[in-house]
Specification:
Layout lengths: L4 H8 L6 E6 L5 E7 L2 H10 L6 H9 L2 E6 L3 H15 L14 E6 L7 E4 L7 E7 L3 H13 L9 E5 L5 E5 L6 H4 L13 H15 L3 H17 L3 H51 L11 E10 L2 E11 L2 E2 L5 E4 L8 H15 L14 E5 L2 H13 L6 E4 L6 E5 L2 E5 L6 H34 L7 H11 L2 H6 L2 H8 L2 H10 L1
Parallel strand pairs: 9-13, 13-14
Antiparallel strand pairs: 1-2, 1-3, 4-5, 4-6, 7-8, 9-10, 10-11, 10-12, 14-15, 15-16
Length: 507
């Protein structure tokens, strides 16, 4: 198979660092997204070893006309980015990662006489217990490995069962009665050889279930009772074994706690570094030189939400150093417009926000943003710039058009379109900011709309005035909840039996 020289040259100059690679066809459609510790080595293997590839993969590789690379600071970060990209674009050849299959579950079978424990990607078996889902299996596998020393269990596929013969006798059957290596390592109690009874084996399995259900103290309590009972019966050998299990369980719990803490620290550090890098990339792509070396970058993003102008709301969300700063979020109930007019509504939000700057009782807004993002294209951006000019504010501002996710920026009196590379960290950062503003605006819009609907429903009910209406809205939140409420619940709010009867009858 011969590949284009331009494609092979791109592979030769690809990064040697961790990250993701995106295979595209001639229509710029995404075929496959993968991750690698070393991008160049991984991508080269597809083309250098083409003849040895699986036929299905060969079909994919034939279609590749372009490759995009996104570098990361670590393999962990590459894994996270790969997962997010696959979930968003669902490429044809990423079969294994579609529909949340990147998450794993710990499965414990129920139908088996002697249950098995394994990790699965899908919950296909109905008669089983599932724990999870887990993104990072390292800590969970460590815990299970150590638990197996205390509570041995089987992982084999051997058929083990009891059946009743013609005489009514209970016969034990195993497809292989020779104990395996795990038995000799004390990691399996060899149920295949009938060395352990079903109740004793299931006791081990139930203790493992308890552990993953965070019922460690119940396990410890039961083991202690069993140890004291064995000691009182002078079975000191058994009591010693249980005592050792208790000590091991204590060590496992402590190690697991420390490992989880360390993993969380590492995760937060990686996430923080990744966000900062995405922010630097974004500033560079937007060519905002004054922000390139600035610390604690504050970004404000604005969005408007309304249905035909009704119950219109504006949202302001803040990201500091590429992380949401929810204490600075603000919502605005639009006062000047009752018909759909995003431009005017945005003007109102901007006026009210930048008036806050001068108010001494709202110190959180005394610090101006370093960058403003407006959810919309040239029209919304133009309206916003007029308000900034009116208040003599010189703040970098961009608009994010919804259809093709293009960025618009005013440069030398003309609107300039900036297109970020889809799949790049800066692309996902700006979408994340925009989506958060959208979510926050819609949430407030729904609250206002719900209150309005309740008000209209309650207006014609005798006995329900402004005070009672406010109480009902505060207590139940929606007309649906008021309708579902029992008479006793309504009476505790309304305080009048006749009015409650009217509500139940007319709502």
């Amino acid at each position: 198979m011969k590949f284009k020289k331009s494609l092979l040259n791109k592979i030769k100059s690809s990064p040697l660092s961790p990250g993701c690679y995106i295979y595209k066809n001639e229509d710029n459609g995404i075929l496959y997204i993968g991750k690698a510790v070393n991008i160049r080595h991984r991508v080269s293997s597809y083309f250098n070893n083409y003849k040895k590839l699986d036929p299905k993969i060969q079909v994919m590789v034939k279609q590749i006309t372009n490759i995009e690379f996104v570098t990361t600071d670590s393999e962990l970060e590459a894994l996270i980015l790969e997962t997010n990209l696959i979930k968003k674009y669902k490429p044809k050849y990423n079969r294994l990662m579609k529909d949340d299959k990147n998450y794993a579950w710990l499965m414990i079978t129920r139908k088996d006489e002697f249950p098995r424990i394994e990790f699965v990607r899908e919950q296909k078996i109905k008669n089983a217990d599932y724990f999870g889902p887990y993104v990072n299996l390292v800590v969970i596998k460590r815990a299970l490995k150590r638990l197996r020393i205390i509570f041995p269990f089987r992982t084999c596929q051997r058929t083990i069962c009891f059946y009743e013969n013609k005489r009514g006798e209970n016969i034990f059957h195993s497809s292989n009665k020779k104990p395996c290596l795990y038995y000799h390592l004390s990691l399996c109690s060899a149920p295949c050889t009938n060395f352990i009874s079903r109740p004793d084996y299931r006791k081990n399995i139930n203790n493992i279930k308890r552990f993953f259900r965070s019922k460690k103290f119940k396990i410890i309590e039961d083991l202690k009772n069993e140890m004291y009972e064995s000691a009182s019966e002078k079975d000191f050998e058994k009591a010693k074994v249980i005592r050792d299990k208790l000590q091991d369980l204590s060590i496992i719990s402590e190690r697991l706690r420390i490992e989880k803490d360390m993993d969380e620290i590492l995760w937060n550090k990686t996430k923080k570094e990744s966000n900062l890098q995405a922010l630097k990339n974004l500033v560079n792509r937007l060519i905002i030189t004054e922000l390139q070396y600035k610390n604690n970058l504050k970004i404000e993003c604005y969005d408007i939400s309304n249905i035909s102008g009704k119950s219109a709301t504006g949202s302001l969300i803040v990201f500091t150093n590429a992380n949401p700063d929810k204490s600075l979020y603000r919502k605005f109930k639009i006062k000047t417009k009752n018909e759909p007019d995003d431009y005017s509504m945005l003007k109102e939000v901007f006026k009210r926000r930048f008036k806050l700057k001068s108010k001494s009782n709202d110190k959180s807004f005394s610090k101006l943003p370093d960058l403003i993002i407006v959810d919309g294209g040239k029209g919304q951006l133009s309206s916003s710039i007029k308000i900034l000019t009116k208040y003599n504010l010189s703040i970098p501002i961009i608009g994010l058009a919804k259809k093709e996710e293009n960025i618009f920026k005013l440069s030398n009196g003309l609107f300039k379109k900036i297109k970020l590379s889809k799949g790049s960290p800066e692309y996902f950062l700006i979408l994340r900011i925009r989506d958060e503003a959208h979510r926050f605006a819609i949430k407030y819009h729904r609250i206002l709309r719900s209150k309005k609907q309740i008000k209209s429903v309650l207006d014609d009910i005798p006995g329900v005035g402004d005070i009672v209406r406010k109480r009902l809205i505060k207590a139940f939140g929606s007309a649906k909840n008021i309708k579902k409420a029992k008479k006793e619940e309504l009476l505790s709010v309304v305080k009048n039996k006749k009015t409650v009867e009217n509500i139940k009858k007319l709502i």
